[in-house]
């Protein structure tokens, strides 16, 4: 079997009492006449003042923009971020090569620490299903030759990519911490390779409906996430109680605040719900870096009175997993309100 796509249609269809049929092109096009969500331009921040050590006034203006976007949007874009276009392009090529491997090989050969996942095994009804496949790789495994099998050329690129994303994530986290009166290096000791991840995503073209999730609505269970995506689009986020579509920018990386930063900042920074919508004709690729602390790290508010009770990252992860298994969705921070 040489088909690269996982059996998403069969598993999605199993969530219905009747088989799912692929609609004719005409029928689909008529549904496309429904109101189209307007694309939004996320706050765009030029990091050259931070990366190239410009004067203090420019650095302060850049830091202020990062903190404002984290409070008002929970999402922003960065350009001149210090990660070379050549490295990003090489990483994309290796990612394409990896995902074009036959599905049976991806599912059975233990690639990348046996981290291959597809669909949503816990889904009990259609709105819980994600039309996607991914490798979710701990940073501790990226250097291990045994993880790569025939994809040896991916290893060196992954190491360089992970190091660059890690450096950028810590720079941004330091800016956000400093804004709240803490030292820039506050996350250096608690965010280590053992709990940080890189996730390689592929969203195959979905012939069924324009309303199927590539990735179900969620918030991220980390401090912050950095996303490198292609130009297909499909990422949407919640803004003013409405879903807005994010316009891709080929020169930018997307940054979003995670649950832990919202709790640690006492709601100064916002972890915003977001999702990916599947595309009928075009597959979509992205790569996400997740800045996470060690499992025994205690997450407490940096300000009083605290909105949330203290909890460890391990406790938070366990609660999220329990909720998803029991209810089919993540409850998140509301579980930890004082």
From TrEMBL:
Q: Which GO terms describe its biological process?
A: gibberellin metabolic process
Q: What is its EC number?
A: 1.14.11.13
Per UniProt, the keywords (alphabetical) are: Dioxygenase, Iron, Metal-binding, Oxidoreductase
The protein, known as: gibberellin 2beta-dioxygenase
* Superkingdom, taxonomy of origin: Eukaryota
* UniProt GO MF annotations: gibberellin 2-beta-dioxygenase activity; metal ion binding
Q: Which SUPFAM superfamilies does its entry note?
A: Clavaminate synthase-like (SSF51197)
InterPro entries registered for this protein in UniProt: DIOX_N, IPNS-like_FE2OG_OXY, IPNS-like_sf, Iron_ascorbate_oxido_reductase, Oxoglu/Fe-dep_dioxygenase_dom
**Domain Fe2OG dioxygenase residue range list:** 192-293
Gene3D superfamilies (alphabetical): B-lactam Antibiotic, Isopenicillin N Synthase, Chain
Q: Which reaction does it catalyse?
A: gibberellin A1 + 2-oxoglutarate + O2 = gibberellin A8 + succinate + CO2
Q: Which family is this sequence assigned to?
A: Belongs to the iron/ascorbate-dependent oxidoreductase family. GA2OX subfamily.
A Pfam family that this protein carries is 2OG-FeII_Oxy
PANTHER family membership:
2-OXOGLUTARATE (2OG) AND FE(II)-DEPENDENT OXYGENASE SUPERFAMILY PROTEIN-RELATED (PTHR47990)
